[in-house]
C-alpha cells in the first residue's frame, strides 16, 4: 500500500538523508529525492526512490505542489555560505504561505536545542576553543529555527537531531 507522495530536498547526502529515506521507503511512501548531485544520490539511495535533478534554489512552487510532505535536509556546500540554510527555508515558507499542504519538515542543527541552563546548545558550542572553523553552520541553523518560530501560517515542523548522531536503531 503506497501513501501520498513526499519529497526531500538535499545537496548533502549524510546520516539524516539516509535515515529519512530508509524510513520513508520502509513505510511505503512514494519518495522523490530532489538533488543537485544525481550520481552521488543514486550511489546512496539506488533505485529505492525517484529522482528530481535540480538545485534547491532553482525550485519553483510548481515543482513542489504535488507533494504532501517536503523534508528539507539541505546543507550548503561551504561554511562561507551557511546562511543558505535561512535562504532556502524562507523560499519554501514563501511558496506555501496560507496553505496546509504540503507539510514542510526542516532538519535543523543541534545548536537550536535548549541546553538545560536557560540557553541553547549553540551557546555552549560558542565556548569551545578554536570554534571558528565550523561554528557558522550551527549559528545559521539556529537563526533558521528563530525565523521558523515566527511563521504561523504555514504547516511546518522543525526537527533538531541530537548533538551527536550515530548509526543504528533509535535509543531512549
Kindly describe this structure.
It is a single chain. With 172 residues, the chain is of the alpha/beta class. It is 31% helix and 20% strand. The protein is built from six helices and six strands, in the order E-H-E-H-E-H-E-H-E-H-H-E. It has helices at 15-26, 38-45, 61-64, 84-95, 121-125, 136-148; strands at 5-10, 30-35, 50-53, 69-72, 99-107, 154-159. A six-stranded parallel beta sheet has the order 3-2-1-4-5-6, sandwiched between helices. Helix 4 runs parallel beside helix 6. The radius of gyration is 16 Å and the shape is globular.
Q: Any chance you could write out the topology, listing elements then pairs?
A:
Blueprint: E1 5-10, H1 15-26, E2 30-35, H2 38-45, E3 50-53, H3 61-64, E4 69-72, H4 84-95, E5 99-107, H5 121-125, H6 136-148, E6 154-159
Parallel strand pairs: 1-2, 1-4, 2-3, 4-5, 5-6
InterPro entries: NAD(P)-bd_dom (IPR016040), NAD(P)-bd_dom_sf (IPR036291)
Organism: Streptococcus dentapri
Domain NAD(P)-binding: 18-167
Largest sheet, spatial ordering of strands: 3-2-1-4-5-6
Helix % is 25-40%
Strand % is 15-25%
Q: Output the helix-strand order.
A: EHEHEHEHEHHE
Overall form: globular
* SS field, number of helical segments: 6
The number of distinct β-strands equals 6
Mean pLDDT: 85
Number of discrete domains: 1
What's the CATH C level? Alpha Beta
CATH fold call = Rossmann fold
Low-confidence stretches: none
Radius of gyration: 16 Å
CATH superfamily placement = NAD(P)-binding Rossmann-like Domain
Corresponding CATH architecture: 3-Layer(aba) Sandwich
InterPro entries: NAD(P)-bd_dom, NAD(P)-bd_dom_sf
Domain NAD(P)-binding: 18-167
Protein name: NAD(P)-dependent oxidoreductase
Amino acid at each position: 500500500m503506497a501513501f501520498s507522495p513526499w519529497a526531500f530536498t538535499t545537496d548533502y547526502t549524510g546520516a539524516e538523508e539516509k535515515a529519512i529515506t530508509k524510513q520513508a521507503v520502509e513505510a511505503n511512501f512514494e519518495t522523490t529525492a530532489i538533488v543537485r548531485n544525481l550520481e552521488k544520490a543514486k550511489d546512496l539511495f539506488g533505485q529505492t526512490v525517484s529522482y528530481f535533478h535540480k538545485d534547491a534554489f532553482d525550485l519553483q512552487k510548481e515543482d513542489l505542489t504535488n507533494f504532501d510532505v517536503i523534508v528539507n535536509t539541505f546543507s550548503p556546500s561551504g561554511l562561507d555560505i551557511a546562511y543558505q540554510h535561512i535562504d532556502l527555508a524562507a523560499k519554501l515558507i514563501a511558496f506555501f504561505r496560507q496553505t496546509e499542504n504540503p507539510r514542510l519538515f526542516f532538519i535543523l542543527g543541534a545548536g537550536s536545542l535548549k541546553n538545560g541552563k536557560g540557553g541553547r546548545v549553540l551557546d555552549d558550542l560558542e565556548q569551545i576553543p578554536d570554534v571558528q572553523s565550523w561554528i557558522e553552520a550551527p549559528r545559521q541553523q539556529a537563526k533558521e529555527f528563530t525565523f521558523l518560530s515566527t511563521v504561523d501560517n504555514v504547516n511546518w515542523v522543525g526537527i533538531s537531531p541530537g548533538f551527536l548522531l550515530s548509526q543504528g536503531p533509535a535509543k531512549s
